[in-house]
Each structure stands twice: as structure tokens, then as C-alpha cells.
User: Fold Enhanced entry protein from Xaviernesmea oryzae.
Amino acid sequence: MGSNRFHRVILKGLLAAFLASAALPSFALAQANTRAVTRPLEPDTQPMKKDRVETQPAEGNAQGAAEEQTQPDGIVPSGGVELYQRMGAALPPAPPEKPYNGPIDEAYGAYQRGFYVTALDKALTRAGAGDAAAQTLVAEMMTKGLGIKRDAKTAAFWYRQAAEGGDPAAMFQYALLLMSGRDVPRDKKLADEFMRKAAEAGNSSAQFNWAQIVVSDNPGEKGLHLALPFYEKSASQGVADAQYAVAQLYVALKDLPQEKKAKAREWLERAAKAGFDTAQLDMGVWLVNGIGGERDYDKGFEWMRIAAHRGNVAAQNKLSHLYINALGTRPNPVEAAKWYVLSRRAGLQDPALEDFYLGISEETRKQAIEAANRFRRG
Assistant:
């Protein structure tokens, strides 16, 4: 049955592999979702990282050799999903709503109730008079074709008017248009200016994106220190990617106060509970290795399992190691081989797991391939 080979991947090698994955990631500029309407609530955009991959559908086959026939042609990064679609764990309690005693905005009220024609009619009148909030609403509705035919170029005009009028949501959206050159001439300098202004005005998505820009423009620890306050502000407003970044920086930056470093795992857990699969992966890594707190193999296994089920290939690979070494779970060669098969199909090579896989019996490999195919079909 290959039992000796099953235990060949020892704990020392596992922890070394886990530690290697715990290094500070390179942060890529995240383009938040295009929702701009912010009244009366702030936007809940949650950009995704690129660790998530999707592969071609598996071809059912009961023969052991069929595993090689189901290799995908390549790895395709997913387009990401909204927060409510990626809940892998219980969400943290929602923050209490802030009391609102200001004037009632009839245009936004109609928009939120789905009365788009009414909302557009009321907003256009105010937009023409220079109301920045109404201009943002008009741009949003034209972008999505709500109550009017979709018109991206005219929407860009209204975003610009609202941005120049000081609306934070419009400044953020217009900055994104300027970055991409979509429907407006590309202008990085002006885009950065509007992104910074939106971030300073409190827009949570702009705060995260401006932090990314600062890191990109200022390589090394200097840039990370300059960006950290914006990551922290965005994280405090619930942006999961910012919470993840704060956790990583609290661990990586050496000269931060100890009270901040002590909260690194707390921020990472908040991002993980929001359904961010990369944070779920790192929660598993941190708990297994004792990063940011005590070791907890059981909880580490659970977070790794959640991330693996969400499609995170690195988590699938590491979950295989946990099953082999019985860390947080009982040893299970079928499950170990199943998760290895899934991660290998996605292009992640692992010589130690390949050695384990070749050492198990043909019947175990067959069961693992069938389990992997069921998972992909599901």
C-alpha cells in the first residue's frame, strides 16, 4: 500500500515550505469594482488578488492514466467575484449604521428603490446646475444603462464634472478611467492626482489604490511606510485587500510599534472571514508556523481547507501536505493525493508531493483522481 512512502514527506520539510510562502507578497494595483454611488453608504468594493485560478473542466475517466489527459492547457486568472459570492467563513458583524440627519436626497432615494427613470430625471436637473453628487449619480446610471441607454463617453464627462466638483466617489471612478484611457485620454499624472484626492477625502477604495500607487512609485521600505496609513484607513472601512496588506506589513516592517505587530493576525483574520481566499491561505500558513501568535494546527488546517475549497491552488497544494503529515487532521492518502492532483493540474509542481503520489498504490491513485474529478465537476 506504499505506507512508508506515504510518510516520507516529514514535518521539517512541510514547515520549510510553509515558511517560504509567508513572505511579503508583491502588491499589484487593484482596480475596484465600478460601483460609484456612495450615498448614504460607502462603497463595498473588494478587489481580488491573482492567486485564484480556474482551469478547464475535468474529463471524467476511471482509469489511472486518465489523470494525465485532464491537464489544462494553461492557468487562467479569474476575474474575481463579489464579497457575497466568496464567503468561505462566517462574516464579522456589520458595523453599526451612522445616524443620518441631513436632507433627504430624492434622486438617490429613487435610484435605491429601482425607480431609475425618476431618479435620472431628478438627478439631471441638479447635475446641470453643478451638483457634484447628482453628477455622480447620472454618470453611474449612464455607465450601467439604468433608466437610459448606456453611454460610457457621456458618463465619463459627468464623472469628470463631479470629480472636479469634489465628489470622492467620482474622483475615484474618474481616476480609474484616466489610468486605463477608457473613454478619456490616458493621463497617469491626472489619475494619480484624483486618486490621491479621493483617498484623502475618505473613499475606502481610493485609499487602497492610492497606497498601491505609493508602493509602486517608491520601491523598498520607504514606500511601504508611506503607504501604510492609507492601507490602515481603508482596512478600517472594511476593504479586505487592505486588511490583508496591513497584516503583511505589520509583520514585515521591522520598526513598527509592538502594539501594531501584535494585531497583524487580527487584521489577517478579518480579511479571511470576509472571504478573501489569499488571506485564508495565509491564515493557515501563519497558524501552522506560529506567525503573529501561537501555533494552532487544527485551526490552520481548517483555514487551509476553506481556501482550497474556494479554488486557491497554493492552498490545495499545502492541504495535501497537511493530510500527509496529519497536522490538524488524520492522515488521509486519498485526500492528500486528490488535492495534489488538483494543484498539479493547475500547473503547481511539487517534487515532494510527486514522490508521495508515485509511492501510493494504484487503487489509491484511482480513488484520488475520481475525487478530484468530482470536486471540479461540483
The first helix runs from residue 3 to 6.
